[in-house]
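Q: Structure tokens for this one, please.
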Amino acid sequence: MNEAPTRAQRAFVAGVREALRLGDDLADEQILAAAAEWEHAERSTRIRAGMTTYVRKGRRLGTPISPEREAVYRHVIALRVSGLSLSKIAAAMNDAGVPTPRGGPWGVSPVQKILASDTARRLLGAAPP
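A: Here is the predicted structure, written as tokens:
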């Protein structure tokens, strides 16, 4: 069964046709550019399919966090669950002398980023979106 050509394939054919129309001087460059575009689209499709398969097998993408960082995430989550506001969590973390994951002082923004992260959802038992 013949499938409809993909957008990348149509762009490749159009590029070759344009190259042939332009003549020898620009034909090679035009054909190579069209082939590169096609390969880029095909590679993207293969990578996306591979990542989807990887996730469906129950594996997680990304770099695992260190036990120390996970402890910080768990502490921030526990403070939020206990009812503290974002600014009070930041103040508590600063008072405890715990650096942010990037090494700076705590504010509302780092607390928000931690609470909205896939890592926080995983630690709470929810699947990432």
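A few notes: The chain has a mean pLDDT of 84. Residues 113 and 120 are 9 Å apart (CA to CA).
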